[in-house]
Design brief:
The protein has 597 residues and is of the alpha+beta class. The protein has 17 helices and 27 strands. The strands form eight sheets. The chain has a nine-stranded mixed sheet with strand order 3-4-17-12-5-6-7-18-27, with helices on both faces. A hairpin with a 5-residue loop joins strand 9 (232-235) and strand 10. Helix 8 (285-294) crosses helix 9 (324-332). The two termini are 48 Å apart.
Length: 597
Amino acid sequence: MDAQGRERGHDMDPADQWVLNPDTGDYELRLNDSAPQSPIPSPRRPRPAGVGAGKGASAPRGRGDASGRAPERPPGRRAAERRAPEPEAAESEAPPRRRRGAPEEPPPGRRGRRPVKKKSKVKKVLLWTGGTMAFVVLATGVGGYLYLEHLNDNIDSISDDGASTGGFQKDKAINILLIGTDKRTGAGNDGYGDAGSAGHADTTLLLHVSKDRTNATALSIPRDLIVDIPDCPTTLEDGTEKVIPGTRGRFNTSLGQNERTPSCTMRTVTELTGITPDNFMVADFNAVKTLTTAVEGVEVCVAKDIDDPKSHLKLSKGTHTIEGEQALAYVRTRHSVGTGGDLSRIGLQQQFLSALMRRLKSNDTLTSPSKMLKLAEAGTKALTVDTQLNDINKLKDLGLELGKLNVKNLTFTTVPVVDNPAETVKATVVLDEAKAPQVFAAIANDVSFTQVKQQEKKEKAAVAARLKGTKAPASEVRVRVFNGGAPSGSAQDTLTWLQLKEGVSKSENAGNAPKTLKKTTLEYAPDQADQARRLADILGLSGSGMKPGESATNSQGLPAMTLTLGEDFKGAGVSLTVPTKAPDVKKSTADKVECAQ
């Protein structure tokens, strides 16, 4: 707001000057105590060439007044101050960051709108801020509806170095990698973290949101888990590129150490789980402090008195509302909860994130324009994102997708691990080879860890019914085998296996499929259902991979089924069965209040 506006606003908080007009359902800027003002559009300005460059970055856009000229921008102090490094940050290695140019405090506003029917106050606010009902800091992105251009200037971004899928898509399941670093950046954080360290992947969660947006799973990855960190092609701070050699070590060293950036953490997660994240978001200590302060505190519960001199947390048994430094101390404490290790702290952090989620979704937050603006500011300033998300519109779109979730269907769980058998004094953990692959497979195949809706149950029952019924003898199964994304030679290998090992003699290699498929699919006509059930049984193919359709014609001119080996194909004779039920592991849902033990 300019000086005149501040004078007319009587030094009122800018957030409180945006008032909901109950007659129109719109937010209006009120500069005095009498008459409502009309919504003011955001000033349009050019984006400097090259800013935010990187894979997936938006092209430079020219914006200005009716003449096409961009408005002049006074030099101001904000941009210079924003670029000045923190004294502590300057001492440690930092991944390359991109900051957009900053104008002088543009007033909030929004683009032109179509006439809409009058909505109640609550419904209108929910429409505008739907994304804030989603997971923790991601949710605040949708607050950008209020003043997109201003929030753009808050966003820092780092290249994903080709480690992602290329960014989330609205018609697919979403996988977001959330990384909390212990780097000591930001005011007031001198006493935390390792002095002079470039930071680590101290707290990491892989957030999976189902394709139909009915459920989500937040998978915590222990920082002390021994993993294979792959070779990481990396864009350094000076813009040069290098490949950082891989190693085997603790998961938390996948970030910060040896010049590794979040893209290397992303590659490590893919190596570990088989799941390639769509995007990443990195938060430092200030994210916890500013977000909890923006919502005026988060309510947590402890089952005993806590006095942890290392994290500086001191709470009596019972329920407390915490924010700022106290909230940071809460998520950092570990010596006073559970067994005193990192796994106990993970459980505490999951309880905290559930509480923050409930707070974000509460009407007390959603119906407060002041809180919503503070959330939008805090979220965009506290986070560093990959270059696929370096625009507030992209964050808004992600927020809207996440806003479709119900907290009762957001499950928190942890990668199953066991103590490292190679250690006498237990300091690290390794994968539980019996349980961890089941968890990874469930997430990769979009299996809900919460109870599915009745309609979903009916649909799954219908899919399962495809496997029920009579099965034709293997010698009567006639099928053409295509390679639709499997490794080269897979069609011939499968053909040989079917004919020599399984007795499916009426099979043939049809070569490459016309398009690539994610999952192996068997298409068959209604009168071939008994053949399809037999072949599915041989392949270990689930009902979801069976596609009722039309018959093909083989090289002898006879009707045949079509088997297309997709990207999920693991080899001839390897079962293609995918999980339809989540494994039995320790978990919690965001709607439940739990007390830290």
